[in-house]
Amino acid sequence: MRIVVTGLIGQYAFGGVTWDYIQYALGFRSLGHDVWYLEDTGTWAYDPVKMEPSADCSRNTTYLARVMEDFDMGDRWIYRNAADGTWHGASGASQILASADVLANVSGACWLTPETSRIPRKLFLDGDPMFTQIGLAADPDSNYAKHVAAHESQFSFGLHIGKRGCKVPESGFTWRPTVQPIALDYWKPTQPPTSEGNWTTVMNWASYAPKDFQGEKFGQKDLEFERFLDLPSLTRERFELAMGQGVGNKRPTAMLESKGWHIIEPDTHLPDYLTYRQFISESKGEWSIAKHGYVNSHSGWFSCRSACYLAAGKPVVVQDTGWSEHLPSGKGVFAFNTPAEAAAALDEASKNYEHHCQAARKFAETHFEAGKVCGELLE
Fold first, then answer.
1. Strand locations in the chain, DSSP E?
2. Which of 27, 56, 182, 296 could form a disulfide with 374 if both were Cys (CB 3.0 to 4.6 A apart)?
3. Is 95 in a helix, a strand, or coil?
4. How far apart are CA 191 and CA 281, in angstroms?
């Protein structure tokens, strides 16, 4: 079966973004399918140096070509530059797309064109539950709603959508639950477990403005972080956060560091997928909050980044969004709702560190193995 996976690897040449998308291609490939990667967003390329749109996509395609080569996908990639409509990567892009059986449109990154619209089976994969559905509910006749409806199946990281207590509107779609596929061979634990080191995460202070729905606000991580500012004073553990400045560069760095949080710049310390993996692999584990919108909506979202920590054999202590009603908590993975619960989970993970490292890897093998997750999408 010929499967085309879409993404934003070249568009946003950052470490975590690369892993988010490439692991779908690796998962389908592990099942023996004929896999191609496509980037056709309909928007101009993003220049990560100037931090602005650019008509020149050479920096983006150079990074994408390097990634594909490193993951043994050679020239099995296609990039269309929206500025001039030119194709880059594999020759015969139109013929490749015309012969595809499945389009896995990860995070809806590909805006459907005549070439991709004709692919018989199109899967829309939502990685931003609640925010995606707010947009659909706000204007069910919008071009975006028509775009989502043009796919034969809709999936979401919102494991709790449609369940009791979940505020995510279904918006006329049947959202099937899914999780991030993890290519486990690329995340093997590389060093013996040691309880020394920092609890880390990779995050953005605020990715975009809050959304309002039915009289409630659904915001970003900045709103949730306010509840956990004093966590370092409740535990002996140390924290190092690779945290983006957020929209408008509003991250309150001095205040955060005065509370005991060590902040580093992700674009400096984690510029690509290799340094991103190294950062995770050298961490003690992950401590992280979720977007306020995920928490307030009780969406059941579970982080693709946290799944990478688990695969690397690192325990994670992460905020509950309702995911604990669908995935087990307590061995290698800990859900929390309050600062006291977070501190207690960190203490437990540290006291029995080697046990929880082993449990973390087992958790990833059980719930996130790429071939299994991608196979379920095809079912």
1. 2-6, 34-39, 45-47, 52-54, 77-81, 86-89, 102-106, 121-126, 153-156, 175-177, 199-204, 211-213, 216-218, 239-244, 261-264, 285-288, 316-319, 333-336
2. 27
3. helix
4. 8
Q: Which amino acid is at 169?
A: P
The first and second tokens of residue 114, run together, are 């005549």
> Is the alpha carbon torsion for 243, 276, 350, 337 positive or negative?
positive
Token pair in block for residue 28: 């389908």
As beta bridge partners, residue 121 has 102
Q: Which domains does the chain have, with CATH numbers?
A: 2-182+369-378 (3.40.50), 184-367 (3.40.50.2000)
Alpha-carbon distance of 370 to 196, in angstroms, equals 30
pLDDT in tens, 87-124: 999 999 999 999 999 999 999 999 999 999 999 999 99
Could you please report the per-residue DSSP string of 272-307?
A: SHHHHHHHHHTSSEEEE---HHHHHHT-----HHHH
Residue 298 has pLDDT above 80, yes or no: yes
